[in-house]
Amino acid sequence: MAVSSNHTIAAVSTASGAAAISVVRMSGPDALKIAETVFRPSRKFESHRLYYGRIIDPALNDTIDEVMIAVMLSPKSYTGEDMAEIYCHGGMLVTSKVLELLLKNGATAAEPGEFTKRAYLNGKIDLLRAEAVNEVINAKTELALKIAQRQLRGDLSKRFGMLRKKLLLLSARIEVAIDHPDDGYFSDYKKLYEEAVTIKNDIEKIYRSYELGLRLREGFRIVIVGKPNVGKSTLFNRLLGIDRAIVASIPGTTRDSIDAQFSLSGKSIKLTDTAGIRESAQGIEKIGIARSWNEAENADLILWVIDRSSAFDDDDKKIYKQLKKSGRSFLAVLNKQDKASVFNENILGATKIVTISAKNGSGMDMLKKEMANLLEIEKEFDSYDIITTVRQKNKLSETLNLMDEMTEHIKEGYGEEIIGADILSVISYLDEFIGKISNDDLLETVFSTFCVGK
Ligand code: GDP
User: Fold this and answer.
1) Which of 41, 144, 302, 420 has a beta carbon 3.0–4.6 Å from 330's, enabling a disulfide?
2) Residue 336 Cβ contacting ligand 1 at under 6 Å
């Protein structure tokens, strides 16, 4: 395997601060030599074995720390190069002394993401998998982690590998038809069109998964709206399991929106309680209401709270109308189940309804189940092949534009040379997406977001 660089890099791979253990990593042609220089008792290291000893500064014959060290020889290492990992005591001072010693003995300080970049340049992983390394590190929810790990395992790469292969087969068929025009080979444009559209649809689906990936990583937005005094703040507190919002029996108490984070079936949720909406509002309350609608317009799900123990009046009707107009997904939450109802559910037509008592907690399990159901946008996707970075999204968007042109050309019956060239440029865009083709700028963009030592 080709070694991508002639210099050896070193970095601390664990987070800084006091800790039981820190890992200092080296990769490159001199990793072994430097490790042998600073480790006592001195060794001829064997690959993939763990050694106990001391790190010493050979110039001063001074012990810096008691450590374990492992050496992974090329090509069987993370980067594909010779690597050494030193497990020293955690703590800023001792860790930085170990690193300084490696730098003094011939290593260079690693750039952010340089280990992973080398793994990519040495063909150990493709660009999608390299990006997944960062996603795994930064995952904040179970689902985000699951997606990142699948991408790291290579599932997304495999899926694109298959799509690429299909395009190559289309291209080969066209080439045969171009090269042998008189031998009875011809391109069946109808079949070609169908196959091209199938591939395009598949890529389009993965492209749309970006939105889902974003929600899974950064959280979904759920906004509670309704008239004043219907129990919004009580519901807000009940969902969070703490008393965050002020509950009062005086209408118009909540004048501004408040947010809090909670978790619902493995998803991170930003829950927002908003100012009660009513027509008669004046001044500051009116500003609060405008804010309520602003929040609602950006929500993934709106919980519309109705007090079923009091009359469904003009304010309720106006809210209902506005919610339908917003096109957002919403759920009618009929509150105050513990009191006698004057509510006629027929008014709400096909709207999804859940009845609860925010005050005593009844109906909350059903409400949470229904909320989780409505947020399960992953149902639309047949797998967890989800793109996660803006780079991936933009590249796929460009690829899809080209594919639109390609399918249009096939439909219009353009010449085989043109169609053939269309397919090849789609393939080259996909190659950039996967990282088969790359350039320094692209790699800089991808790896600069990594931490040093990864
Ligand atoms: P908001 O203005 O919509 O945020 O309403 P609040 O949460 O401040 O509640 C208004 C009043 O209704 C308070 O006195 C609450 O205790 C009461 N309330 C809220 N939920 C329920 C419920 O399920 N049952 C009953 N009986 N009262 C409730």
Assistant:
1) 302
2) yes
